[in-house]
Design brief:
The protein has one domain. It is about 70% helix and about 0% strand. The chain is built from eight helices and no strands. It is globular and about 50 Å long. About 40% of the residues are buried.
């Protein structure tokens, strides 16, 4: 089950609380069409700004903090919007896709494949992502279903690398 199609909130909402700014991907979630894709594209575009400043361990620790903070920000924003997995909430795409990029070769072809795979897994929600999407109606559930989309993406990329090596 994909995010509930909903009208994006006003720009004013974005700046009414720091959680809203984060959860809505600094505005990328306000795209009227495919906000999840816009959030994933933002993650892809910003990853090169993060990568040079941290080694793998530091980057994964940073992503863990972003995930935990995201649980709180997403829950607050979803509650304020009246829909826990509102379409404009895209932090759940951004952090997991950054994780994918940590494990992905820094080549545009590999990253393009990662982007497509992540979007497919995020939209189709294979188990256990579907469980978290359908049964865990809070910020943790919203963030976790995309974590599993990222895990499946990393797994498929690893299989592709082993086949092509």
């Amino acid at each position: 089950m994909a995010k509930i199609p909903t009208k994006p909130p006003a720009l004013r909402f974005l700046f009414s609380h720091p959680a809203h700014l984060v959860a809505c991907g600094f505005g990328s979630g306000l795209f009227p069409v495919a906000p999840g894709t816009a959030g994933t594209l933002l993650a892809w575009a910003t990853f090169p700004l993060l990568r040079p400043w941290m080694n793998d361990f530091e980057l994964l620790a940073f992503l863990a903090v972003c995930f935990i903070g995201g649980v709180l920000a997403v829950h607050k924003t979803g509650s304020d919007l009246g829909v826990i997995d509102h379409g404009s909430i895209v932090w759940d795409e951004i952090v997991p896709f950054w994780m994918v990029l940590v494990f992905c070769p820094a080549d545009w072809l590999w990253q393009s494949a990662a982007f497509l795979l992540f979007r497919i897994f995020d939209i189709t929600k294979p188990q256990p992502a579907r469980f978290f999407d359908e049964k865990v109606k809070n910020g943790f559930g919203v963030m976790t279903d995309d974590f599993f989309a990222a895990a499946y993406t990393v797994l498929v990329l690893a299989m592709l690398r082993s086949v092509l090596a």
